[in-house]
Amino acid sequence: MPRVTFRLHYPEAQSVSLAGSFNQWDPTSHPLRKTKQGHWSITITLPKGRYEYRYFVDDQWFTDPSSERVPNEFGSENSVITVE
């Protein structure tokens, strides 16, 4: 299965996690680690497919600014990634 790295530049954040269709939108299951440069990242293994996701930054949902986006049922947008 492919390994996928998610990265977010958000140096002011105190905590960042990843939630999406691949983990039942659980904001506690995939915490990101912060680098000295202020990037947050995590590498996970995902089967091929299309996934929607968002970051959970300091208890607020955050859409990845560098990704494709689709509307969600909450009136905001989810990020989209396709794993090949």
Spell out the CATH superfamily: Immunoglobulins
- Strand percent estimate: over 45%
CATH class: Mainly Beta
Rounded average pLDDT: 96
> Which fold does the CATH topology refer to?
Immunoglobulin-like
- The figure for the number of domains is 1
Terminal CA distance: 9 Å
Structural account:
The chain has 84 residues and is mostly beta strands. The protein has a single domain (3-83), classed as Immunoglobulin-like, CATH 2.60.40. It has strands spanning 3-9, 16-20, 33-34, 39-45, 49-57, 60-62, 68-71, 77-83. The strands form two sheets. Strands 2, 5, 6, 7 and 8 form a five-stranded antiparallel β-sheet that branches.
Furnish the topology, listing elements before pairings:
Blueprint lengths: L2 E7 L6 E5 L12 E2 L4 E7 L3 E9 L2 E3 L5 E4 L5 E7 L1
Antiparallel strand pairs: 1-4, 2-5, 3-4, 5-6, 5-8, 7-8
Give a summary of the structure in a few sentences.
With about 80 residues, this protein is mostly beta strands. The protein has strands spanning about 5-10, 15-20, 35, 40-45, 50-55, 60, 70, 75-84.
Please name the defining characteristics of this protein.
5-stranded antiparallel β-sheet, 84 residues, mainly beta, 3-stranded antiparallel β-sheet
